[in-house]
Amino acid sequence: MFEGNGPYYETINDSSNLNEGIDVVYVGNVLGGPSSGASGTIKKIYARKALVDMGSIIGTWNIPYCFLSCVAA
Q1: How far apart are CA 10 and CA 13, in angstroms?
Q2: Considering Cα of 58, then 59, then 63, then 69, what sign does the dihedral take?
Q3: Residue 16 confidence (pLDDT)
Q4: Residue 6: what pLDDT?
Q5: Which of 3, 46, 54 is nearest to 26 (CA)?
Q6: Nearest Cα to 26, choosing from 4, 1, 3, 59?
Q7: Which one, of 58, 16, 60, lies nearest residue 42 by Cα?
Q8: At a CB cut-off of 8 Å and minimum separation 6, what does 27 contact?
Q9: Which of 3, 20, 37, 66 stands 20 to 30 A from 26 (CA)?
Q10: Phi first, then psi: what are they for 64, rounded to 5°?
Q11: Half-sphere exposure of 14 (CA within 13 A, CB side)
Q12: CATH architecture of the region 23-70
């Protein structure tokens, strides 16, 4: 892995360890989507994606699990 001072986020592959209300970070880089590093709270869990509320400015997005990372406690 990389050694550095920046944060390291491990992406989520499925919903087995997620619940509604958990804080997550968006680690994707999709044109027209939220900015990378934006954090939010899971509102609803689906089979392959989660509905994430990222605040009033960014909004609420359906994001695939491969673009999400759990926030370190």
Answers
A1: 9
A2: positive
A3: 75
A4: 56
A5: 54
A6: 59
A7: 60
A8: 9, 11, 36, 37, 67, 68, 69
A9: 3
A10: -60, 150
A11: 1
A12: Roll (2.30)
**pTM, two decimal places:** 0.80
Identify the pLDDT of residue 7: 60
Write out the two tokens for 7: 């944060």
- In a 3-state reduction of DSSP, which class is residue 24? strand
- The per-residue pLDDT for range 11-69, each reduced to its tens digit, is 776 777 788 999 999 999 999 999 999 999 999 999 999 999 999 999 999 999 989 98
pLDDT at 10 over 80: no
pLDDT for the residue 32: 92
Cβ-contact 7, 69 below 8 angstroms: no
Beta bridge partners of residue 11, listed in sequence order = 69
